[in-house]
Amino acid sequence: MRRAQGFAIAACLFVSQSGCRRQAPIGTDIPKQQVLETMVVKRQSVGAQIDLPAHLMANPTKIVHIYPMISGRVVALRILPGQEVRKGQNIGSLESTEATQARSDYEKAKVEAARADRQLARARELLAHEVMAQKDYDDLKALDDADHADLARTRQTLHLLGFNEDDVTDLVPIVSPISGVVLDVGTGTGELQRSLDNATSIATIADIDSIWVVGDLYPRDQANVHLGQPATVTVNGYPGWQLHEKVENISDAVDPVTLTLKVRVAIPNPEHRLKPGAYANLSLTGQLHDAIVVPASAVIRNGNDVFVFVQTAPGKYEHRNVTLGETHADSDQILQGLNDGDKVVTGGAELLRSSGSE
């Protein structure tokens, strides 16, 4: 009796162990309480999405560093960083002995030109009465021309310094050459500025009515980017705000620091909402190719295995290996392994995996 019971127990253990080693079939019924979500997929034309970290910067050709025309001491400065200024606006003044010297040179040149005019007028009368030789008259005419040239030179110097002929002050106005935004102020009231060996500018002003978005492109993605390619710009600080432009330039040399190429997009900025130095993102759409796009939740990765579950019949699902294309946070592209009309499990796929349907 005990021997029969022993055989029965051994038989039960053998059956139990064999059941543990057996793999469940691909088509497995899912308990009704486990709800699965599915979708019918369709092949479509999609473009490779390339996201580039980027930053905003002013057009370098529209940035002006203001240096003094002559050496002197800053006695007034009427701008602050971030302030908007107009072309020709007086933003400060400089006190300089060179300005006094320039005015003195102009007054002397004016006196000499007037004296030369009087001498030439007398010589013209003498020449008319044949009292003066033509050669002597020509010499006086040349001296008169030279004095007037010197007068024009000193007058131009005054104009370059911001003066006119009637000014009597030695304060040199500092004028903004363009309309724009003050990016930086490099001096303060009371500081001495030297015109020739000055290391820092009085101020830096930029026209940001149009602003550059410069992205970092790794050379491995270079084949997917070309001039005129549509680009979408998003800027930190403006969630949900997208700007659509086209690639304007791709640099010809790799940046030795970041080892990237620079991709440039120009954005109109009439309200100056976009600020130089802000971080942005540059999204480029590459060449179109055929793929099936599924939610990222549908794709399961197991080591080197990448697969999805496809519904073959009500309550029946099969494991399908796939080849991925571009992947994103919320979606993946399937290049191979699925066909149009396949019903793919998009929610609860892990339940099938845990139930042995793999």
For the record, what CATH class of the largest domain applies? Mainly Beta
Largest sheet: 9 strands, antiparallel
Strand content: 35-45%
- Rounded to the nearest angstrom, the radius of gyration is 41 Å
N-end to C-end Cα span: 44 Å
Number of self-contained structural domains:
3
Order of helices and strands: HEEEEEEHHEEEEEEEEEEEEEEEEH
The structural class is alpha+beta
**Second CATH tier, the architecture of the largest domain:** Beta Barrel
Total number of beta strands: 22
What is the count of helical runs? 4
Q: Helicity range of the residues?
A: 10-25%
- Poorly predicted regions are 1-28
CATH level-4 homologous superfamily of the largest domain: Efflux pump adaptor protein, beta barrel domain
**Overall pLDDT, averaged?**
84
Can you tell me the overall shape?
A: elongated
- CATH topology grouping of the largest domain: Elongation Factor Tu (Ef-tu), domain 3
